[in-house]
């Protein structure tokens, strides 16, 4: 029940339901050449397959360091783990001769007007996304990967994410609260709608305009955007409820669009052209104006809340580990973020890190490895 299959045309961890704990880790690759890079991808594939299936850890030889960190005991349980591998633009520099194979939208993350990016929290050759029922399972997976890849990778940044306990049987449709106290995910895409996922999330064979499409190896993958967005929660907690609700365009208790009572009711912007009910600059109205043109920018959000330490100025360092997937980076995340630039919510949020990545196509059957088509 709590085992997510590793093999398939797409990687797990994208349209699969979100369990309560996540761990995002960006790595830089130290492999000397393309052969070593392939070795790294094979190791990652083997470890992901084992960790997501679970099983006994190899017997201990007292003369050697234990084969497993042991933090889950002698039997690794799947615990709903998904491990997802994505590549960053920097992997396609001249180190491995992959310049010609780069997904066509992949580049270092753009800088948006409200960003205050901390270089120590940005980019990476690789992004590993672990999601599981418990934080320990994710940490066990990370330590397993690190101990199996000596000399091949170095850690760049890492952040844990969490979600409140919730029902996980509606992938992409879970509505749990973020750290500003609002339901998040209400109008997200239905990840169980395969036709919709094919259109908006999965890069198709020969995707893109004729002649300038995606490289053949990329089919079945997806652009993954991660944004570490700090929330100024102390300031937010001193903001009147009515203002909070106008900033998002939704009621705080029910999650319903302003003026309505059902969380899943559709906001009707056509009958509110001047923004009397839902302000024109409300987060949900800018993010998705629901016009024929804006249908192209639908994205699959899969974020987590995060809570780190305390900032140098003594405020809580917490916020949203925003994550989304789309078949076209520019038509998706970039178009949505450009519409959001200048929104009133910016007074309470500060993007400080993240990156643009490409989640690799899945491994269809045992024997294959992640990134095989690329290498
Ligand atoms: C909707 C919160 C950042 C895209 C929402 C909703 C909330 C929310 C409460 C309404 C419920 C829902 O449909 O999920 C936040 C917070 C953010 C943030 C607290 C930052 C800390 C972003 C970013 C993007 C984004 C960076 C993309 C660039 C969307 C979209 C919707 C949405 C597409 C659905 C709109 C609709 O279809 O009606 N967000 N969001 N959000 N947000 Fe955000």
Bound heterogens, unique: protoporphyrin IX containing FE
Contiguous uncertain segments of 5+ residues: none
SSE pattern, N- to C-terminal: EHEEEEHEEEHEHHHEEEHE
Work out the helicity level: 10-25%
Q: Which range does the strand content fall in? A: 15-25%
Mean pLDDT: 95
Q: How large is the radius of gyration? A: 21 Å
Q: Helix count?
A: 7
Give the CA-based shape: globular
State the oligomer.
single chain
Classify the secondary structure makeup into a structural class.
Answer: alpha+beta
Biggest sheet layout: 9 strands, antiparallel
Question: How far is it from the N-terminal to the C-terminal residue, by CA?
Answer: 34 Å
Overall number of strands: 13
Put the structure in a nutshell.
It is built from 7 helices and 13 strands. It is of the alpha+beta class and 375 residues long.
What does this structure look like?
Strands 1, 4, 5, 6, 9, 10, 11, 12 and 13 form a nine-stranded antiparallel beta sheet that branches. A two-stranded antiparallel sheet has the order 2-3. The longest helix has 20 residues, at 34-53. The chain is of the alpha+beta class and 375 residues long. It has helices at residues 34-53, 135-148, 194-200, 233-236, 241-248, 283-287, 330-340, and strands at 21-29, 55-56, 75-76, 82-88, 126-132, 153-162, 176-177, 183-184, 222-231, 300-301, 304-310, 316-326, 349-359. The model has no long low-confidence stretch (mean pLDDT 95). It binds protoporphyrin IX containing FE (HEM). The site of protoporphyrin IX containing FE has 27 residues, from β8, β9, α6, β12 and α7.
């Amino acid at each position: 029940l709590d085992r997510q299959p590793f093999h398939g045309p797409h990687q797990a961890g994208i349209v699969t339901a979100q369990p309560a704990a996540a761990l995002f880790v960006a790595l830089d690759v130290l492999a000397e050449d393309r052969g070593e890079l392939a070795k790294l991808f094979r190791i990652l594939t083997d470890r992901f397959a084992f960790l997501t299936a679970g099983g006994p850890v190899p017997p201990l030889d007292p003369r050697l360091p234990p084969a497993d960190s042991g933090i889950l005991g002698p039997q690794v349980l799947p615990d709903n783990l998904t491990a997802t591998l994505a590549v960053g633009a920097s992997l396609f520099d001249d180190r491995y001769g992959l310049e010609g194979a780069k997904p066509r939208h992949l580049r270092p993350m753009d800088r948006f007007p409200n960003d205050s990016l901390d270089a120590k929290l940005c980019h990476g050759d690789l992004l590993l996304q672990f999601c599981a029922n418990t934080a320990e399972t994710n940490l066990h997976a990370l330590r397993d990967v690190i101990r199996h890849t000596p000399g091949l990778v170095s850690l760049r940044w890492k952040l844990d994410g969490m979600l409140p306990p919730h029902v996980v049987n509606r992938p992409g449709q879970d509505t749990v609260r973020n750290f500003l106290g609002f339901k998040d995910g209400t109008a997200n895409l239905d990840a169980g709608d395969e036709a919709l996922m094919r259109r908006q999330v999965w890069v198709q064979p020969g995707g893109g305009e004729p002649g300038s499409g995606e490289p053949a190896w990329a089919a079945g993958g997806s652009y993954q955007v991660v944004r570490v967005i700090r929330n100024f929660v102390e300031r937010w907690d001193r903001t009147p409820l009515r203002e909070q609700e106008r900033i998002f365009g939704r009621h705080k208790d029910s999650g319903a669009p302003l003026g309505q009572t059902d969380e899943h009711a559709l906001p009707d912007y056509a009958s509110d052209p001047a923004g009397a009910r839902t302000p024109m600059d409300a987060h949900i109205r800018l993010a998705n104006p629901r016009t024929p043109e804006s249908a192209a920018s639908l994205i699959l959000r899969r974020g987590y809340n995060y809570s780190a330490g305390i900032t140098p100025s003594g405020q809580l360092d917490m916020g949203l580990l925003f994550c989304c997937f789309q078949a076209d980076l520019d038509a998706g995340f970039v178009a949505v973020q450009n519409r959001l630039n200048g929104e009133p919510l910016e007074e309470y949020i500060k993007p400080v890190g993240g990156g643009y990545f490409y989640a690799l196509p899945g491994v269809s059957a045992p024997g294959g490895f992640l990134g095989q088509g690329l290498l």
